[in-house]
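Let us work through a complete example step by step.
Step 1: write down the sequence.
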Amino acid sequence: MESNRKAFNSIDEYIASFPEEVQKRLKELRAIIKATAPEAEERISYQMPTFTLKGNLVHFAAHKNHIGFYPTPSGIEEFKDELSAYENAKGSVRFPFDRPLPYDLIRKIVAFRVKENLQKAGAKKK
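Step 2: predict the structure and record it as tokens.
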């Protein structure tokens, strides 16, 4: 299901390259991230939708059977118990298309990453 692998200039362009049902899920995920981290900036990085706030916050991408969510290794480690219901690795988790997105868990992970990035940025200033 991966999109046609062209170079994307925006998250809108990325989302539009997928079938309608996948677009719906990608839009839902994007909305959750934006609501949880309204000060974060959107961009394309590694040809994936990316949110940044004092550095990379989270990435996401659609694949054949799942949406990959990439909240860095610290985001996975912090929520490893809650993420155990999903296939995950050091810095990523797979949300399969045959299950609803775990909205509350995504919100908690994004909020954790916002706090983590802001703390790191504050520590660098000292």
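Step 3: interpret the result. The chain has five helices and five strands.
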